Structure formats: C-alpha cells, structure tokens
Amino acid sequence: MTSPIAINRKAGRKSLEQILTQGLDRLKKGFWIVMFPEGTRTIPGQKGKYHIGGAWVASKTNTQVIPVAHNAGLFWPKNSILKKPGTIQVSIGEAIDVHNKEPDEIIRLTENWIEKEVLHLND
C-alpha cells in the first residue's frame, strides 16, 4: 500500500511545509517516505540538481536517510517513453544519521554517496 505526497514544485517554501506536514502523517502511520532528491530522471553520466526537501524532512523529523542508487536511466532514458531491455542494478547504502545535522549537510552526504555509487552501476 502506498500513500503518495503530491507537491507543487513551484510553491517554494510552502511545498516544504506541505512535505513536512504530510511526511509526519505518513511516518506516524508507519509508512516509509521515498523521495528522489533530483526530482526527475537524469541522463546517465550527468549529474542533476539535488533538492533539499527530503533532507529537510529528515532533519525536522529526526528520521534517518537511507540512500539508494540505481542505473535505470540506462534502460529508460530521460525524455523518452521507450524502455530498453536490460537489468536494472540497485544499490542501498547504510543509513545516514541525521541527528544534529542541518539539511544542507544531509543532502551533501546523500548526494556524495549516490554520485559515487552510480559510477559503479553505470559501468
């Protein structure tokens, strides 16, 4: 069962408040929150912009971040509805302790791990 959190990306700070309110609700109900920090698919080998939303929620709720890297972009390219055959590799990192960390540090740690890991997956 899922319970998505829909946001208006153009709403700025208001969308962060919405993510926090709905995120707290989901956590209290026992859901895990899955966020893609880049917000969209990227071209393999190119780095996207990492957004602060997930790190902000983690910081405010004192919830660990578990980074995940994958190579799905090799088989479902950005700006394409066509998928290519292949095996998607997924790598799950160790939990990032968010205690006493600001959102900027959390997203930096997350980004560093994902970017390093995705290099191995795209080989």
Describe this structure in words.
This protein has 123 residues and is mainly alpha-helical. It has a domain at 36-121. 36% of the residues lie in helices and 5% in strands. It has three helices and two strands. Strands 1-2 form a two-stranded antiparallel sheet. Helix 1 (13-28) packs across helix 2 and helix 2 (53-61) packs across helix 3. The longest helix is centred in the C-terminal third of the chain and has 19 residues, at 103-121. The chain is globular.
Descriptive tags:
about 120 residues; mainly alpha; two-stranded antiparallel ribbon; 3 helices
In short:
With 123 residues, the chain is mainly alpha-helical.
Give the secondary structure arrangement, pairings included.
Elements: H1 13-28, H2 53-61, E1 68-70, E2 90-92, H3 103-121
Antiparallel strand pairs: 1-2
Helix pairs in contact: 1-2, 2-3
The computed structural class is mainly alpha
| Span of the ends, CA to CA | 34 Å
**Helicity, as a percent range:** 25-40%
Strand neighbour order, sheet with most strands: 1-2
Q: What profile does the largest beta sheet have?
A: 2 strands, antiparallel
Topology, number of strands: 2
* Beta-strand content bin: under 5%
Overall body shape: globular
Low-pLDDT runs of 5+ residues are none
Provide mean pLDDT, rounded.
92
The Cα radius of gyration reads 15 Å
